[in-house]
Structures are given as structure tokens and as C-alpha cells.
Design goal:
This protein is α/β, with parallel strands linked by helices. It has 3 domains: 13-69, 434 Repressor (Amino-terminal Domain); 78-174 and 281-307, Response regulator (Rossmann fold, 3-Layer(aba) Sandwich), CATH 3.40.50.2300; 177-280, Rossmann fold, CATH 3.40.50. The protein is 39% helix and 18% strand. The chain contains 12 helices and 12 strands. It has helices at residues 13-20, 24-31, 41-53, 60-71, 92-111, 124-129, 144-151, 177-184, 199-205, 220-229, 242-248, 280-295, and strands at residues 78-84, 114-120, 136-140, 158-161, 171-175, 190-194, 214-217, 237-240, 257-261, 274-277, 305-308, 311-314. It has a 6-stranded parallel sheet with strand order 2-1-3-4-5-11, covered by helices on one side. Strands 7-6-8-9-10-12 form a 6-stranded mixed sheet, covered by helices on one side. The longest helix has 20 residues, at 92-111. It is globular. It comes from Fastidiosipila sanguinis. One of its GO terms (molecular function) is transcription cis-regulatory region binding.
Length: 316
């Protein structure tokens, strides 16, 4: 049965597998973030894209089991809470980037003797009741308003990742979008970003690229409307995120795209495009270093804001 023609039926894992042209087992590994089998980044993107198109809802119990391996780790030095605004309604692209980051950060902190605990923003009230259990709090991609409110609630060190705080009392680790857009806007007129990027990224971009030329992608329809309206046949376009770039290249020549990826494997998906990399491994490394310094009460030895620059992988 065609799931697209039967909107009343909830999509199954088999539907996702058929749409992505992979096995059901592969879909299970990808959507439950299992590390039991090595799966290429390109295949993961295909699965996430298919799941998003079909509005697939993952099994929460399986997801809990996938994360449980982190909570079972014996922590020697302390517990780090990571507050993130993500839920079953979040896009699979957002989930893909976040959980890859979470897995890397959990592994990095585990090597230093810390346990990383995920705190969903919708459950933050419960976390506040248990706040004495945490030695440090990290805020991940929250709005300025939510982040500033939370800094007043926890009486332990608080730092942010890709979250603006505008407060010298708190440290931030951010990708350097300012210099990225300043540089790329000199040769690209248009920009495509996902709707889940924080407001800071859009505000930075709009300093260098006219807001009318920025697409904040919300759906397949928004892409079609944008490219139908804009005549960009000979113009360069910046696309942030390899999953979004896979969609955009259906509308423009790949040579027109300047793709900003989040994984090294993702950079190999666009042989005819200019490609840059915001390396998740580097933001994880800096975050782990910051956690160590803050918990050793040596925060003054670390820059107030740590910027991770984009690396040029391939230039046309």
C-alpha cells in the first residue's frame, strides 16, 4: 500500500526502508542510533530523509534503550547535563546532527571520567528538581530567552553550545558563522538554511546576505516556491547542511552550490560543489576541554567564546 496515498495509516519501519531503498535492519540501526553496525553517512541521510518525508515516529522505548548505555557508565568525576530542545516532532535532519554530536560528546566526556545525561527541554522542570545531581550544565541550540532563563536556575557552572548567551559570566562554544558568511557572501548571493537553526545564525547571515535571498527551509514546498520565484541559474548559493544540500541540488546545478557540511563523510557527497566543513569532532573536543577547565575552577584560562572555524575541503 502506498503510504503517501493513505495518510490515515502511520508509516512503519518497512515503509521507510522501501522509500530509502535499504533493509529494514538498516533503518532500525539508523533511527535507534545504534553503534552495533557501521553505516555510511550517505545511507543515514537517505534514511532520515525518507523518515521525514513519511512522518515516521520512532519507537520511544527503543530510543531509550539506545541512550541507556550512556547512563550505565560509571562516572568518576561528575555528571554533565545537556539540555536540548528536541522531541518527536523535530525533523530527522535536526535529530541526525544532534545525536551524532551527542554520541561524540558522550564518548569524549566518558574518556575524562564524566557521564553525559540528556535533558529534553520539555522535561526541564523535572531536571530542576534534580539539579543538585549535576556538576555542570550545557545548553545546546536553545533560544536566547530560554537559555538566559536557565542560567538563573542552576547553581553549578553553565556553558552553551551553539546557543547565544551574551553574558561574560558564561562560556560559549560556537561555529564561526560570522566569518563564514562574511567570506562566502562575496561570491554567493543566496543562502539556504534549515528552520531549526537558531536565530543567531539567521541574524549573522542577514548582515551579509539580503533577507529576501535567504531561504529558511520548512518543507519540500518551501524549496519549490523559493526556486520557482528566484532566478538563480547563474548565481552561487550557500547551503548549510549536507541533508539540505541533497534536496537543493534537485533545483540547481551542483556547481552553483557552496555546501557547508557537518561531517567529513558528508563532504564526499558533492564532488562538483565547493565544500566546507564545520567539524563536529572539533566542537566536541573544545567542549570537553571547557568542561574540564570549568570543573577544575580554571575557567579564566579559557576564552569566553570559543569559535570553531569552517575548514575549506574543496574550492572550485
Amino acid at each position: 500500500m502506498d503510504i503517501d496515498k493513505n495518510q490515515n495509516r502511520q508509516a512503519t519501519m518497512k515503509d521507510v526502508a522501501e522509500r530509502a531503498n535499504v533493509s529494514t535492519a538498516t533503518v532500525s540501526y539508523v533511527l535507534n542510533y545504534s553503534d552495533k553496525k557501521k553505516i555510511s553517512h550517505e545511507t543515514r541521510l537517505k534514511v532520515f530523509k525518507a523518515a521525514e518525508e513519511l512522518n515516521y515516529v520512532t519507537d520511544k522505548s527503543a530510543r531509550s534503550l539506545a541512550l541507556k548505555r550512556y547512563s550505565d557508565v560509571k562516572h568518576e568525576k561528575g555528571i554533565v547535563g545537556l539540555i536540548v530542545d528536541i522531541d518527536e516532532h523535530s525533523s530527522w535532519t535536526k535529530k541526525s546532527i544532534y545525536y551524532e554530536f551527542f554520541n561524540l560528546l558522550a564518548a569524549g566526556l566518558r574518556q575524562s571520567g564524566y557521564e553525559l545525561v540528556e535533558i529534553l527541554y520539555k522535561n526541564v522542570d523535572q531536571a530542576l528538581k534534580e539539579k543538585h545531581d549535576y556538576d555542570l550544565i550545557l545548553l545546546y541550540e536553545l533560544t536566547l530567552e530560554d537559555a538566559q532563563a536557565l542560567t538563573q536556575e542552576f547553581f553549578v557552572p553553565v556553558a552553551s553550545i551553539e546557543t547565544p548567551l551574551f553574558n561574560i559570566l558564561f562560556h560559549e562554544v560556537n561555529f564561526d558563522f560570522l566569518h563564514l558568511f562574511e567570506d562566502l557572501s562575496q561570491r554567493a548571493k543566496y543562502l539556504c538554511i534549515e528552520d531549526f537553526v537558531n536565530d543567531r545564525v539567521y541574524e549573522i547571515a542577514s548582515k551579509f546576505i539580503h533577507p529576501d535571498n535567504i531561504l529558511v527551509n520548512t518543507s519540500e514546498e518551501s524549496l519549490e516556491l523559493f526556486f520557482d520565484k528566484e532566478n538563480i541559474q547563474d548565481e552561487k548559493i550557500i547551503v548549510v547542511g549536507e541533508a539540505l544540500a541533497l534536496k537543493v541540488r534537485r533545483f540547481v546545478d551542483e556547481k552553483q552550490m557552496i555546501v557547508v557540511c557537518y561531517s567529513e563523510s558528508g563532504t564526499k557527497l558533492f564532488p562538483n560543489s565547493e565544500v566546507l566543513l564545520f567539524d563536529l569532532n572539533k566542537i566536541v573536543k573544545e567542549t570537553c576541554f571547557l568542561v574540564e577547565k570549568l570543573l577544575e575552577l580554571k575557567g579564566r584560562e579559557v576564552d569566553h567564546i570559543i569559535y570553531i572555524p569552517a575548514e575549506i575541503v574543496k574550492r572550485n
